[in-house]
Design a protein that fits this description.
Number of helices: 7
Oligomer: single chain
Order of helices and strands: EEEHHEEEEHHHHH
CATH class of the largest domain: Alpha Beta
CATH superfamily of the largest domain: CorA soluble domain-like
Strand content: 5-15%
Largest sheet: 7 strands, mixed
Number of strands: 7
Radius of gyration: 34 Å
Structural class: alpha+beta
Length: 351
């Protein structure tokens, strides 16, 4: 997950110039569409941009585009749906912060889509949503989305999705993205709890690497979700004619979820910071324990070294040198001193 994408290719270009900024480039751009009204729902695959137009019969059309690196496709869709050049420029730039723009003829929403792989890795993809009169355009970086539940609801006719307008479809797409934030946060929460147990029981240099990885992931999540609060709040209060009052209450529910997610991210960040403090404290405690043992050993051997130094002097006339029991006596004195010092340290609770 890169926090910053390279924008140097756009330096000096006029506003509205289409330049792809990002790394995810699928083999080809895929275009699928749903057109529904009431009990009818048609699903179309592998469409060309020229074959798409806004619906004129009162039905709702959802066009899903997988891949934003082909500028010809973006330009063609822009002409077919009368999209502003600045809007198309933002779609091609996958380093956008979550935001909501009102272009009078349509609403433009940018947000980050997060998902978790089987290897417990976080996949990040930018999604751009365009709400117009009876149509929704969704632009994804590589087409691997979290909209499966929305498609199943359209195919099966479950709920109120088919009976509602394009604004309710917009809510369903945004809600699907926001709900997957909870899946990512649950996975990170489990990792942080395991990390806390690890830093207490067996702190290692690899543990520090895990802590920094989690801090980086949470920093990215905060950057992806924090601006979404304002966008979700603006959606629930927008005066756009495409948003009905009956749908705004659902966007207020999304706003509540985003607030909850932000609070959870801040809590997890504090837990990771606390884990780092525990790690440093554990390392310091382990170092202090080692130094205490070495200090005790050194202190015990200091008087013994003094005695050995005395009897190691090369003087001819020294007492006890010719005595038969001198050597055992000196060893006994040294052992007695060591035992006495150990008892003193034990009584002082230094060991």
């Amino acid at each position: 997950m890169k926090l910053v994408q390279k924008r140097s290719r756009k330096t000096g270009l006029p506003p509205g110039t289409l330049v792809h900024i990002g790394e995810k480039k699928p083999a080809k751009v895929t275009i699928t569409a749903f057109n529904y009204a009431g009990t009818r729902c048609d699903e179309l695959q592998d469409l060309s941009p020229d074959a798409l137009t806004p619906p004129t019969d009162g039905s709702v059309t959802w066009v899903d585009i997988g891949g934003v690196h082909n500028m010809e496709v973006l330009e063609s869709l822009g002409k077919q749906f009368h999209l502003h050049s600045l809007l198309l420029e933002d779609i091609a730039n996958t380093d956008q912060r979550p935001k909501l723009d009102d272009y009078e003829t349509c609403l433009f929403l940018v947000l980050k889509m997060l998902s978790v792989t089987d290897q417990q890795e976080i996949v990040v993809e930018q999604v751009s949503l365009v709400l117009g009169q009876n149509f929704i355009l969704s632009f994804q970086e590589n087409g691997a989305d979290v909209f499966t539940s929305v498609r199943d609801r359209l195919r099966g006719g479950k709920g109120r999705l088919r009976q509602s307008g394009a604004d309710y479809l917009l809510h369903a797409l945004v809600d699907a993205i926001v709900d997957h934030y909870f899946v990512v946060l649950e996975m990170l929460g489990e990792k942080i709890e395991e990390l806390h147990d690890l830093v207490v029981s067996d702190p290692k240099p690899e543990t520090l690497h895990k802590i920094h990885t989690l801090k980086r992931q949470l920093m990215f999540l905060r950057r992806a979700v924090w601006p979404l609060r304002e966008a979700a709040n603006n959606l629930s209060r927008s005066e756009c004619p495409f948003l009905h009052e009956s749908t705004k209450v659902f966007f207020r529910d999304v706003y509540d979820h985003v607030i909850q997610i932000v609070d959870t991210i801040e809590t997890l960040r504090e837990m990771v910071s606390a884990g780092l403090d525990i790690y440093l404290s554990s390392i310091s405690y382990r170092s202090n324990s080692v130094m205490k043992v070495l200090t005790i050993i050194t202190t015990i051997f200091m008087p013994l070294t003094f005695i050995v130094g005395i009897y190691g002097m090369n003087f001819e006339h020294m007492p006890e040198l010719k005595w038969e029991w001198g050597y055992p006596l000196v060893l006994g004195v040294m052992v007695a001193i060591a035992i006495a010092m150990l008892g003193f340290f034990k009584r002082k609770k230094w060991i």
